Amino acid sequence: MNGDIHERARMLIACGEEEPWLAAHLESCAACGEFAGGTERTARALRTIPITAGWSLVSATQMRVRQRARELQLRQERLWAIWICCAAVTLIAGFTAAALWSGLAWIGERISLAAPVWQMSFVVFTLLPTIVTAILLLARGTHLADNEEV
Amino acid sequence: MADENAEIALGLRRRDPDLLDRLIEQYQHRLLRYLVHLTGRREVAEDLFQETWVRVLERGRQYDGRRDFTGWLFTIARNLFVDQQRRRQPRSEDPAELATAATGQPSALELAMQHEQSEQILAGMEQLSAEYREALSLRFQEGMSLEEIAGVTGAPLGTVKSRIYRGLIALEPWLKGAGL
Predict the structure, then answer these.
(1) Residue B167's closest chain A neighbor by CA?
(2) Contact of A122 with A101, CB cutoff 8 Å
(3) Long-range CB contacts for residues B43-49, cutoff 8 Å, separation at least 24
(4) Counting one residue from A and one from B, how many pairs have CB atoms under 8 Å apart?
(5) What's the CA angle centered on A119, arms A117 and A122, to 5 degrees?
(6) Does A58 sit within 8 Å of B25, measured CB to CB?
(7) pTM reported for the whole predicted model
(8) How much is the ipTM here?
(9) In Å, how far from its chain's centre is CA A65?
(10) I need a labelling partner for B157 at 20 to 30 A (CA). Which of A60, A128, B35, B115 fits?
(11) B67 SS3 class
(12) Tens-digit pLDDT profile for residues B84-137
């Protein structure tokens, strides 16, 4: 029990915490008082350890950070370009789809085609590039998988 | 302090290179000292020092200014160290190496007089486990509160207290050797 009190007192001293009973305990316990003094001297000694960053380390770090900042800025600018291209492509695709829809509707009307027929043509026209690309990619993937197995 | 943190957060969001230059200069000694005690090797600490600032630049947008910048900076440094430790195999170290490597050039006569004492303490610190070293360094060198240390290390408050206490006990023979 007594040992616990000393351990508690020393833990409080080490962590720089205070409790009402601690001051009284330190007055009556020489060992804990010595520990408090030692802790204070340790803290002072640790603060005086001269570990300093050299000028070369600081300037090399600043240079590296600036270089990385430039790289990130360039990447950001490229990303912006990609976003603008994507937006432009989406816009153009929208206009093209609208024009295609009107064009096919006009042709369907001219040659008296049933609406579902030219509408199906529109769907095929619109989806054909995606379907072809998907088939090609799948074929390529299968080919790679086959090669891996061998 | 809150204003300063908010200003830093704003600058980091803009990736302001002038602000980073200023921060590197402002925190150079504190960060390096922490890293030297954390890693136990000056050259590793210097590598991590640079990595830390590059990471601050890259992740600066995640800093919201509500937390103290010092704590956030040290957390980044610590996470980098932990990542590095995971990647690397543990190396054998010469206990005397840190003492000679980490002790900088004494800039004044009084520092020269303290040289031997500092070497003793550094040698003692080197004998401690990284967790104790880190806790003592943050507490007594950086003057962080227990809560701040818990924030940096990600350890519960009780663990932080225990590390400081046990670190001090383990360091005692070296301090006596240094005449403290």
Answers:
(1) A14
(2) yes
(3) B43/B101, B44/B84, B45/B102, B46/A57, B48/B77, B48/B80, B48/B81, B48/B84, B49/A53, B49/A57, B49/A61, B49/B77
(4) 117
(5) 115
(6) yes
(7) 0.69
(8) 0.73
(9) 18
(10) B35
(11) coil
(12) 888 875 554 444 444 444 444 444 444 444 566 677 777 888 888 888 989 998
Helix axes A115-149, A55-110, angle to 10 degrees: 140
Query: Quick one: which of A69, A60, A113, A89 has its CA closest to B28?
Result: A60
Please provide the size of chain A in residues: 150
Phi first, then psi, for residue B98 (nearest 5°) are -60, -45
The size of chain B, in residues, is 180
Token digits of residue A132: 């072809």
Q: Which amino acid is at B105?
A: Q
d(CA B14, CA B115): 43
Of the candidates A15, A41, A50, the beta carbon closest to that of B106 is on A50
B12 part of contact set with chain A, CB < 8 Å: no
All residues of chain A having their beta carbon less than 8 Å from the beta carbon of residue B161 are 11, 14-15
Q: Taking chain B, what is the end-to-end CA distance rounded to the nearest angstrom?
A: 35
CA pair distance A68, B141, nearest whole angstrom? 31
Q: What is the pLDDT of residues A31-53, one digit of tens each?
A: 888 888 888 888 888 877 777 88
pLDDT at B176: 75
Q: Are B76 and B56 in contact (CB under 8 A)?
A: yes
**Cα dihedral B46→A47→B142→B45 (10° resolution):** 10
The whole-chain average pLDDT of chain B stands at: 82
